[in-house]
Design brief:
heterodimer, A: 0% strand, B: 2 domains, 82% helix, 0% strand
Chain lengths: 127, 240
């Protein structure tokens, strides 16, 4: 458990260091994600790596446990809304309205593109 | 020892312990209600925890800074949780590899729509320029969006509000919208909510379907990369 969490933090730390060092405009944890993925893939190829958290589903279980409670992690930032109540009073309807419409359009465009591209690909494979 | 309840409150209300406990307790109740309703979209646990804790802070006259002193331990885990997305991605790598092309096309279309629609609409309804700037990165996960907002000299805490509200709106609307459209491909449903509503949408997707959750997680990570490059461009092109 502790070893698995350490591995996750280590990946994030390496990602953070990498991004800062090269001055990349991307978030450190995303690089950490890629690192952990590479480690898991490397383990399947080189059995010598299958020790500690990379053995017996250690890091897998710790990660899935964290993701099972993903919603909780947004609560502290969400409560920050109380600092912006004056803005919500001034522009609330416009602010919320814009967000609602933008979310709906984004969901629609993304899902339609995904399904259409998927069908096109299937048709090309069949022909 | 002080037996005066007021001085006990003064002591506890400044301690991280109280606010961490409140955060976990309120969320545990909101989540139990959400499960009890069969994960009804409107029983979103983030939404209800937010207003309950927010009201409690207002009533007790507690500042957000004091609250965050306790809640930061939860907030911190957002980073490790992003890293943890590697595991569902790894476990579903075959499904993901077979859908690389639709994912890339949908990523391009979705991330451009997410940024362009909010900038155009917010200007059309006459929101002030600094609000429009702060809203532009609203579809990416909080940490990244606040970084983008800072680089545009906008208000990062306003961006955080736009990000959280967007996430909740996406999490609430995605299931009814997709059912109404008759979309049964959970890869596409998950991917769309990950693009539009980042981590809160991803959390919702994991509640509905494991494959949807994986695709939402990938979409959220890819969108974080693309949007940090896209927002400065969109702002120069679209903001007058």
């Amino acid at each position: 458990m502790i070893a698995s969490l350490s591995l996750i933090l280590l990946c994030q730390l390496a990602g953070e260091a990498f991004v800062r060092w090269l001055g990349l405009p991307m978030p450190g944890p995303v690089v950490g994600l890629i690192l952990l993925l590479l480690l898991l893939l490397a383990r399947d190829r080189y059995p010598a790596l299958a020790h500690g958290p990379l053995h017996g589903g250690g890091v897998e279980n710790a990660s899935l446990g964290l993701l099972a409670n993903l919603s909780l992690l947004f609560v502290p930032a969400g409560v920050g809304v109380i600092q912006k109540l004056d803005l919500i009073v001034d522009h609330g309807v416009a602010f919320l309205g814009v967000l609602v419409i933008s979310v709906l359009i984004t969901l629609l465009v993304t899902v339609v593109t995904f399904v259409a591209a998927g069908r096109l690909m299937m048709r090309n494979e069949q022909s | 020892m002080s037996r005066d309840p007021f001085s006990l409150w003064v002591y506890l209300s400044q301690s991280p312990l109280l606010w961490l406990t409140v955060t976990l307790l309120v969320y545990a109740i909101a989540d139990a209600v959400s499960i009890w309703t069969g994960r009804h979209p409107f029983a979103n646990p983030v939404l209800h925890s937010m207003w309950i804790i927010g009201t409690f802070l207002k009533l007790t006259n507690t500042s957000y800074t004091t609250y965050f002193g306790g809640a930061q331990f939860v907030h911190f885990l957002l980073g490790p949780a992003t890293v943890a997305l590697a595991v569902p991605l790894y476990e579903n790598r075959k499904v993901v590899a077979s859908a690389i092309l639709p994912m890339l096309v949908a990523l391009a279309a979705g991330s451009v729509t997410a940024v362009a629609s909010v900038v155009v609409l917010a200007q059309a309804v006459g929101l002030p320029r600094e609000v429009v700037l702060a809203m532009a990165p609203k579809s990416v996960t909080a940490g990244v969006a606040m970084g983008i907002s800072e680089s545009l000299h906008a208000d990062p805490s306003l961006t955080a509000v736009a990000v959280i509200l967007t996430g909740i709106l996406g999490a609430i609307t995605v299931t009814p919208l997709m059912n109404w459209m008759g979309i049964t491909d959970f890869r596409a449903r998950g991917f769309a909510v990950g693009i539009a509503a980042h981590g809160i949408g991803t959390a919702r997707a994991f509640q509905v379907d494991a494959v949807a959750g994986v695709f939402a997680g990938i979409a959220m990570s890819l969108n974080a990369l693309v949007t940090s490059l896209l927002v400065p461009l969109a702002v120069t092109l679209l903001l007058r």
